[in-house]
From TrEMBL:
UniProt protein name: Aminopeptidase
Region (Disordered) location: 24-54
Localization: Cell membrane; Membrane
Signal peptide range: none
Organism: Panagrellus redivivus (Microworm)
Lineage: Eukaryota, Metazoa, Ecdysozoa, Nematoda, Chromadorea
Membrane topology designation: Single-pass type II membrane protein
Domain (Peptidase M1 membrane alanine aminopeptidase) ranges: 359-580
Amino acid sequence: MIDTEMPNTPTVKLLFEDDVPGAGTGGGDIGNWSSKGKPNGSAAARNRSKTSGRCSGCSICLFLTIATVMFLAGAILGIYYFMHTYGNCIEATKKNTDSLDIHSTEASLEDEIFEQCGQLFPWKHVRLPESVVPSNYRLKLHPNLETSAIHGTVDIELKIVEETRFIVLHAQDLNLTTFTLRMGSQQVQARHLVCPRLSQWAFEVDEAFQPDSKLRLTLDYEGTIHTDLSGLYVNSHQSKSEDNKTVTISAVTQFEPTHARKMLPCFDEPSFKAVFDISIIRKKRHLARANMQLIRTEAYEDDLVLDQFAPTVVMPTYLLAVAILDGFEKVRRMTKTTLKPIEVNLYAPSDSLAGQSEFGLDTGVRALEYFEDFFDIPFPLQKTDMLALDDFAEGAMENWGLITFRDAMLLYHPNSSTEKAKETVSLVLCHEMAHQWFGNLVTMSWWNDLWLNEGFANFMEYLCVDELFPEWNVIHDFFIENFLQSMLQDGFRSSHAVSTEVIDPAQIGSIFDAISYQKGASIIQMLRGLAGKDAFRTALRKYLKKFEYSNAKGEDLWKIIQEHVTLHTTVSVTDVAETWTTQVGYPLVRVELIDGGSTLLIKDQTRFLFLEEERYANATDQWPIPVQYITDKHRSHKMSWLDPGAQDVKVPLNGPVSWIVANAASLGYYRVLYEATMYKEFAQQLTHDHTKIGPIDRAAILNDAFCFMRSGHLTAEVVMDLITYVEEGEEADRIPWVVILSNLKHIETLIGDTEMLGLFQKFERSLLLKVYERLGWDQPESHVDRMLQTDILALSCRLQLSDCTKQAQVRFHQWSHDKSSVFVDILPFVIEEGVRHGTPADWERVYREYRTAQNPSQRFMLLMALAASEDPALINRFMAMCLNPSIVRPNVLPRALGVLMQNKAAALPAWRFFRMNYDKIEALYGGTTTLLGILVKSMIENFNTQFDLDQVRAFFAARELSASQARVDQAIEMVKLNIQWRRINEKPLQQWLKKWGTKKRLVKF
Ligand SMILES: [Zn+2]
């Protein structure tokens, strides 16, 4: 899957975006905001005993999960009042209680199962026994789109691996009508038992089955088409025509991680791979699609038809997919450079297809061709479909041969989609195509290695887009969108290891987050950097070939990479990979120059934690750390290592240097804290000639500095002095700007109610003025310049740089009369400015446009602009819209309310509205997805007083957040960090601003 990051928003919001992939249920008691999770029984589940007692009764459903995730946004800041040198990582004496544990005890799970499913149920573990494995499913499914009923028959071929008296498989929200169990032609008598807590059915016989026996289990069952975006669920599409608001209903699947069991009884774990023969019964006017190509359509009873699809390749249940579509059309293209031509189809509602399918189709084809070549393994299916859906909790899902997308992630219109939207569509397409090999062909053995799927796909999407659109320089975006984002979430005790033990569906959902995706990708980037591009690719090809149609673990990959790589240190590739993927968090490395600048001293490492209260004395976490460095005298990268436990490592530098970048190109996943004098050198170098430090290194130094200001390792003075170089207007690279703009914006929210706000905004305007004038309002040629212009102009207008406000309003009025008169990239903030300063009639005009826009990313942009009004009546109207799913889709609601919270005039009413209508909002989502958590997080994460925090806690004290708990816990930590920031930084920042204001007092902004 991929996250739900929405395009068409000013790109500087990147660091604050919320919708991160995954997240989850965690379950547990939220009363005290702890992350106490649902029982998991980790070890128990792996210890698969074969038997158990018996007893009766079962009740209580399990809550499942899903997840989209994303997380973390927010930029990064901190300053510690008393510190002038680095160091002094304020070591709190707090005991190492280790991170808020999302797992609970094995014993409690056993107890719960026993209590809820009774003694009769013969299996007591969340994970299925391995004594019986499926090889083939023949599924005949009749989903009735009018009644939402599912009737299914599934015929499962089974093989006995170990002697056993029962077959256990998953089923959730399904009712068994009849079943037969056969061995050869002989029917076997069996008892059917149910354990809803585990979503399991068992079929028990008196006489044990012997190894190598073949069985056939046929199940006739009833189920439901769901409305909570999981299992087989309802996707509705409303026509965008002003006079015809017809709604068409389709049904599509989202099974990852544990929702296949809601459509058919199955062995719903990734290692139970099998072949699926699928038939769908449908009305004639509907269109059915599945993983494989259609091979036959025949008449069925009651004027229905039955579509039969070709048998799938061997694959896990979470990749199974079907769609029964109403009102969809397709465009089609064949690949050219693949071994065999592959049919690629893009499906969308017929009124959405025109004019906006070409880019997605073309990029999908090119991505497929790229990966077949890159991995050197032919794509094994004849076709792949790509579906644009209105209702989709994720960004996209890689179902083999039937990839599903949130519409904004697939449809691109050259006149209504921004450059950012184009980049997002490309990255998402490449991500899903990478999964066709990484994840689909070779699947993680269990969800603890989810990151192998997602980290790789997240990493490979950038290589792919870089190949397809080299002029975009998208590798720079990798740094912002993966490295920085995940380091924010990973800087708290509540974080988890990349490879983390998970058992319960609730926990599985919670790891679809920035750690699995973005940190996973960053670790992979580090390993590739250490191995070298060619050796890395060779190893990947061998890995995929060796484990194709099978399952693998992280260690399987490390072993193969290790065969191709020698690291010049005492640690092996496996050591590096294992430590970085199994240990929570990341290190802070302290360095300085000694011996007159001719020696690099790598002092030590400690785990980096934002919150002082979370740090603890005698922390023992250590990592093998590659220290790749450049200096002002030596531009080529050199490498040294800081081994676990090592301190004061001296590296001779071949002559004196003024500064050193100690994690050059951000190869390693860690932060570097330099001694105080080095920051002065950096500041001088940036002012004198900033290009001497590369763009990623500039961005990393600045970003780390903002983070250290947040954590208290650096003062406001050091950080503000570092960024003033951009005042000259010479900084032309986007990523240092993204770091600066997002962090400034975050500081602004923290000091929004203080008297220094005005002066701080003056400071911001002074930083922007020259680059604003340089970039101007004409449309730049290149993709990269267009993205930078959007960021700079958006912030300039928000800061009410007078010319910006004027220009934006002129363009808003032009746009009101002629939609094509303003180029699309600047539209988001032009319309936002128009709404902010406009009349109710202007708001109405934008609203009408929102209701009729065909392009999903444009629609999203218009909705965000509507949240900018400061008129109380319109703010109320916007909030009322948010409760009407036909006007604001639940999957964009978190962002809609999040943006409203950033509107000063609306923040208090919005928070009140949210609490008053919480029950209705909760009902929109159900407990399955993490969208509620994303929403709560977007509402509260900018709070920055103890009063706010107490209010939040009081409000949620008696509320159950199930799937969304982890998100909300993260938001709480962010609020604590905001409070810490204010405590540490407010006064020093004010003093610095006063000094700066005195210097600038003659300058007019
Ligand atoms: Zn993915």
